[in-house]
């Protein structure tokens, strides 16, 4: 947990980034060379999972270039300019009859229950009729040239659907259950590739100037509208999706992904729906479609989940700080446990692991001891709050229901003082302005408070007046610091911190252990649940007072000092020098002499300790969200401690690392989720692993 707070020290927006590049393929590459290159680079893997095609199907597919779903996605979702806009206009006249027949075939394929063409086709839905009218308006631009229509012929009805599981080990979204998967028609690959403006051998068509301009050409408003309509037809017709952008439909919500978005199904197609809960029926509007999944806006809940509640926060819909306030707290705890179970089973392939119910809070509000508030200007006035979802637009905030009340009070008073003294706010775009962030730290046990003003420069206008007003209006503050950050970055803190008034630290306790907290020290933001988390860690370590323990990723020594109360000797290692300095101070503060801290990478320092004769009975790891370094895992397997206690903040990387340790001779005994961050999607876990020959 030493660097975990870096998640809040970086002001990343919560929006998603589409990695699609929209790059075009070389028009002059021959069909055979493209096939060879695709096979050698593994691009045909999407089709290799299907049954062998009939000759008719194979012939139809081979007329168009076969590519992987990734390459289709990269092209189709980049901006769509090549899907009919590239050359369709030049072939529009004179091909009407053939195109009508082609649209009829595509319509049958699109509305077939299983994605195949055949006699048992369904009646076209109202959405399908709307898409047909759009196609009629677009004419041949929705399909492309005569050659492309011929190459994407009816052979696709022989290709079965390919089921793909949506994972999140590398950041991808997950379904609510490990067994859920997204069905994708392999025919979409052939149809999509056939729609591209490629100069294939024997096509009788050369690349146009419009093709060679690529995606960077400038369009007038009519061309842009044409491109938007063509994109819609491309996603619905060329890929054979059951939905298209702006469609409104009723979906069943079958789960929730790790971002807290509902996972809906529309005729087997996955839609991610912010605000929807598992078990609900919802009316949604499709916002964006991709090959395997899309995004939709929640319009209405037609059948609500028993866990749905009204979010008490007035700015919940605008603020990105919480994701689950619309879900009952009992429902949140159950979902977080299931989230851990799904990751273990799907990513780690760990079946039958005991995952205990999530340990929650009796009062899951006002639990945060630290506030980091960005400052900006709205309508000429100084504001501070949180970034709106998916943006860097600041939503002004008077109160936050997960912050301690004193944190809210100090932030509001600092904003008022700033307005009174005419203090300027930092502007991210121009790099001008003074006040960037207000950081407040609250010690729950001692009541002491620290205020940190993060500024774009050393000089603070009216500094004495500002300090005087803060001391007068906020008596709980015992430390006022300034952090200077002049870099154009979204990282909150700069390298230099100085004391404007009072002490350079505040003091707090976790259990019986005292900690000194400086302006940039990491300290768990939920002290109530931290004691629960660390208590479980000590329990799983099974200490009797005779053991030697290594604490990898020790940070400022919070877990190390907890363990030192029950062990013979504890060694802590951390790559951040400032954190080790704080750890040593905290050890002295508690007069603990059986703890040794060293700066360096765990995978380097621990083997050196082993060479010095230090053998660990227990190794505790508490890595950041990216999980343990591979070399550290190998070091653990080489040292062969009797027990490994893993403290995790990311179920996906946890599952990956447990798989490595299991394969190396350890057995996962028990997993205990702990709710450190109520009303958010984050979940901590403590895991006990024992060497198999010790059981």
Name a few traits of the molecule.
single chain, disordered N terminus, 7-stranded mixed sheet, alpha+beta, 695 residues
If you had to describe this structure to a student in words, what would you say it looks like?
Residues 79-91 have a biased composition (Gly residues). GO terms for molecular function: methyltransferase activity. The structure is a single chain. This protein is of the alpha+beta class and 695 residues long. 31% of the residues lie in helices and 22% in strands. The longest helix has 18 residues, at 221-238. Helix 12 (329-346) runs parallel beside helix 20, helix 13 (405-420) runs antiparallel to helix 14 (463-473) and helix 18 (602-611) packs parallel to helix 19. The model is unreliable at 1-219 and 234-238 (pLDDT under 50). It is globular, with a radius of gyration of 29 Å.
Structural class: alpha+beta
Please tell me what the overall shape is: globular
Q: Helical region count? A: 20
Helix content: 25-40%
- The termini sit apart by 29 Å
Major beta sheet, strand line-up: 10-9-8-11-12-13-14
Radius of gyration: 29 Å
Q: Average the pLDDT over all residues and give the rounded result.
A: 75
Portion in beta strands? 15-25%
Q: Main sheet, how many strands, which sense, barrel?
A: 7 strands, mixed
Q: Stretches where pLDDT falls below 50 for ≥5 residues?
A: 1-219, 234-238
Number of strands: 23
């Amino acid at each position: 947990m030493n660097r975990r707070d870096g998640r809040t020290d970086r002001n990343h927006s919560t929006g998603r980034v589409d990695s699609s590049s929209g790059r075009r393929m070389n028009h002059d590459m021959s069909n055979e060379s493209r096939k060879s290159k695709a096979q050698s680079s593994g691009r045909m893997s999407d089709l290799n999972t299907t049954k062998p095609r009939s000759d008719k199907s194979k012939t139809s597919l081979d007329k168009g270039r076969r590519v992987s779903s990734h390459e289709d996605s990269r092209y189709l979702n980049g901006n769509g300019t090549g899907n009919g806009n590239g050359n369709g206009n030049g072939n529009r006249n004179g091909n009407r009859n053939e195109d009508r027949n082609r649209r009829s075939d595509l319509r049958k394929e699109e509305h077939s229950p299983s994605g195949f063409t055949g006699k048992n086709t369904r009646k076209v839905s109202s959405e399908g009729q709307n898409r047909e009218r759009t196609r009629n308006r677009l004419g041949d631009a929705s399909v492309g040239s005569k050659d492309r229509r011929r190459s994407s012929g009816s052979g696709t009805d022989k290709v079965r659907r390919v089921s793909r599981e949506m994972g999140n080990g590398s950041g991808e979204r997950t379904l609510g259950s490990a067994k859920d998967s997204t069905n994708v028609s392999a025919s979409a690959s052939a149809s999509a590739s056939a729609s591209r403006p490629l100069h294939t051998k024997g096509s009788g068509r050369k690349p146009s100037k419009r093709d060679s301009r690529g995606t960077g050409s400038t369009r007038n408003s009519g061309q842009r509208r044409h491109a938007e309509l063509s994109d819609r037809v491309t996603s619905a017709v060329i890929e054979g999706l059951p939905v298209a952008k702006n469609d409104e439909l009723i979906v069943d919500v079958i789960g929730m992904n790790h971002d807290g978005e509902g996972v809906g199904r529309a005729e087997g197609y996955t839609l991610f729906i912010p605000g929807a809960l598992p078990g609900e029926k919802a009316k949604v509007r499709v916002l964006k479609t991709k090959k395997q999944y899309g995004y939709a806006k929640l319009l209405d809940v037609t059948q609500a989940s028993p866990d749905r509640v009204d979010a008490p926060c007035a700015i919940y819909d605008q603020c990105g700080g919480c994701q689950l306030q619309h879900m009952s707290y009992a429902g949140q705890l159950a979902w977080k446990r299931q989230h851990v179970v799904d990751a273990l089973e799907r990513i780690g392939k760990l079946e039958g692991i005991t995952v205990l119910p999530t340990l929650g809070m009796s009062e899951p509000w006002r639990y945060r001891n630290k506030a980091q508030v960005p400052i900006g200007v709205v309508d000429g006035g100084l504001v501070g709050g949180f970034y709106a979802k998916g943006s860097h637009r600041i939503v002004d905030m008077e109160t936050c229901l997960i912050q301690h009340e004193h944190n809210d009070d100090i932030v509001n008073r600092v904003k008022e003082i700033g307005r009174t003294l005419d203090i300027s706010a930092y502007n991210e775009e121009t790099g001008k302005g003074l006040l960037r962030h207000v950081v407040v730290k609250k010690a729950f046990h001692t009541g002491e408070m620290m205020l940190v003003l993060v500024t774009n420069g050393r000089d603070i206008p009216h500094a004495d007046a500002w300090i005087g007003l803060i001391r007068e209006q906020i008596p709980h503050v015992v430390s006022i610091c300034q952090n200077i950050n002049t870099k154009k970055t979204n990282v909150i803190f700069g390298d230099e911190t100085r004391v404007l008034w009072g002490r350079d630290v505040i003091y707090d306790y976790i259990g019986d252990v005292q900690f000194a907290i400086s302006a940039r020290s990491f300290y768990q933001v939920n002290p109530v649940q931290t004691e629960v988390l660390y208590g479980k860690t000590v329990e799983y370590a099974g200490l009797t007072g005779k053991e030697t323990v290594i604490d990898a990723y020790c940070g400022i020594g919070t877990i190390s000092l907890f363990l030192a109360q029950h062990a013979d000797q504890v060694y802590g290692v951390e790559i951040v020098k400032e954190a080790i300095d704080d750890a040593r101070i905290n050890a002295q503060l508690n007069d603990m002499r059986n703890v040794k801290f060293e700066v360096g990478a765990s995978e380097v320092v621990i083997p050196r300790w082993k060479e010095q004769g230090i053998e660990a009975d227990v190794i505790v790891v508490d890595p950041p969200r990216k999980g343990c370094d591979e070399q550290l895992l190998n070091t653990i397997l080489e040292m062969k401690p009797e027990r490994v206690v893993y403290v995790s903040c990311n179920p996906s990387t946890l599952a990956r690392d447990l798989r490595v340790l299991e394969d190396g001779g350890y057995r996962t005994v028990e997993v205990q989720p702990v709710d450190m961050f109520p009303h958010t999607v984050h979940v901590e876990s403590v895991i006990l692993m024992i060497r198999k020959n010790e059981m």
